[in-house]
Inverse folding.
C-alpha cells in the first residue's frame, strides 16, 4: 500500500476528507523499528492512520543538532508503506509555521517542562508542545500514539491535552529496544561501535535498579548508579525515580514509579527509562 503524501495543509485536508476515525503517529523521520511498532499499535485504533514527518526547528536549542539531524524521507515512506499508513504529512517549516518561528505564539510547558530534560534544554518542551498542538489542530486525530522513551515529553503532552481540553486520546507505547537492550533512537546512528557498547550500560543500570524496587527508592538509585559509575565513557546528566506523572517520591513511597536516566556517550545524549514498583525501605 502506498500512502498519500500531503505536503501542504490543503493537501492534508483533502486527504482526510473522508477519514473517519483518525489514528496519528507524529515523528521527526529517520524512522526505525521503534517508529514502526508505534504505527502497528496505532493501525487498529482508527479507520485512517496518519504519520507526520517533520523535523521541528523550535525544539532544538543553540548548538544542538538541527542541521545534522538525519532526513531520510524516501526510506521513511517505504517504512510507512510497509506498515499500512494511509496518509503521510511531510510539510516544510513554512507550512507548519506560516508566520515564522520568531515571535510566534507558543505553548508554555509550565513547571514540569523546566526540570530534568527541561533543565538541560530550556526551550525544548516549548517547541515540542507547540508543534504537537499545531499538528493536532491540522490532523485532528481521535487518538495519537507516542513512545515512552521520551517519558517526560509524553507526560507533558498528556498534561497539555488535559489542561487545554484537546479532544485527543494520548496512548503511550513501551520502549522498543535492540537485542542488547539499548533503547531505539534516531540518535543511536551517531554512536561509534565502541560508544554503542558503552551505551548498553544505561539499560543495564535501569534493570539493576528495577530489581531493587522491593527495597525502596534509595536502593533502586544505588543499584542503578553502581552500574553507571562502573561504565567507562558514560557521563550521567541525571538519574532519578519519580511517580508516573514525574512527581517527586521519597523512600517511603509505595506503588508504580519510573526510573529515568539521561547520559552522554561520546557526543551523543541518550535517554532511557523503565517502570518500577516500589516498596517501603527499611
Amino acid at each position: 500500500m502506498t500512502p498519500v503524501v500531503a505536503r501542504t495543509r490543503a493537501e492534508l485536508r483533502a486527504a482526510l476528507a473522508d477519514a473517519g476515525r483518525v489514528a496519528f503517529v507524529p515523528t521527526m523521520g529517520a524512522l526505525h523499528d521503534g517508529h514502526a511498532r508505534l504505527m502497528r499499535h496505532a493501525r487498529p485504533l482508527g479507520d485512517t492512520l496518519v504519520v507526520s514527518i517533520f523535523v521541528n526547528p523550535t525544539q532544538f536549542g543553540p548548538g544542538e543538532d538541527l542541521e545534522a539531524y538525519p532526513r531520510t524521507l524516501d526510506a521513511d515512506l517505504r517504512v510507512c508503506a510497509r506498515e499500512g499508513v494511509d496518509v503521510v504529512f511531510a510539510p516544510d517549516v513554512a507550512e507548519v509555521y506560516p508566520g515564522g518561528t520568531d515571535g510566534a505564539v507558543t505553548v508554555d510547558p509550565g513547571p514540569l517542562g523546566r526540570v530534568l530534560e527541561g533543565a538541560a534544554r530550556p526551550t525544548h518542551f516549548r517547541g515540542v508542545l507547540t508543534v504537537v498542538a499545531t499538528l493536532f489542530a491540522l490532523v485532528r486525530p481521535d487518538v495519537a500514539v507516542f513512545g515512552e522513551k521520551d517519558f517526560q515529553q509524553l507526560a507533558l503532552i498528556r498534561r497539555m491535552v488535559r489542561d487545554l481540553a484537546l479532544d485527543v486520546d494520548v496512548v503511550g507505547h513501551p520502549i522498543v529496544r535492540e537485542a542488547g537492550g539499548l533503547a531505539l533512537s534516531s540518535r543511536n546512528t551517531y554512536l561509534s561501535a565502541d560508544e554503542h557498547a558503552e551505551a548498553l550500560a544505561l539499560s543495564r543500570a535501569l534493570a539493576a535498579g528495577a530489581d531493587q524496587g522491593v527495597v525502596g527508592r534509595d536502593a533502586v538509585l544505588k543499584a542503578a548508579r553502581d552500574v553507571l559509575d562502573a561504565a567507562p565513557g558514560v557521563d550521567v546528566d541525571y538519574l532519578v525515580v519519580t511517580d508516573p506523572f514525574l512527581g517527586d517520591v521519597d523512600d517511603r513511597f509505595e506503588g508504580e514509579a519510573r526510573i529515568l536516566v539521561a547520559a552522554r556517550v561520546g557526543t551523543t545524549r541518550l535517554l532511557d527509562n523503565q517502570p518500577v514498583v516500589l516498596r517501603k525501605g527499611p
